[in-house]
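Page 47, continued from p. 46.
Same chain as before, 122 aa.
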Amino acid sequence: MNDRAERADSAERERDAPAAGGRDPGGDPFDQPAPTGEEKAACWSVRHRAQGMSHHEVKAALTRARELAADGTDESAAAAAEEWERIADLMVDHAGRYDIDIDPFVQGELAGESHAPGRGRK
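Result:
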């Protein structure tokens, strides 16, 4: 394989590789591995820290989280960065402050958990 073909092959593998933590943000959400307990805890920690923050504050926190997750060795840091990014994206056209109680993703997650076997309704 020549040098040009090797670079193209490497770029294709990098493009198709899942993000840190084994997640593929652009992929089918039903094909994603379930988050670990540590990743879930990291996401909830982010949500609670983000409570009441403006979009600019969330973007600053996202920048710090990306720096912490940059080496790719800490799955909870990667999950936290992904959650900061999700919240920042949610707030792009929102002039207010972040509120867990009106975050549609969080509310959907809570509703799903309440209907899971062994919880909530029977």
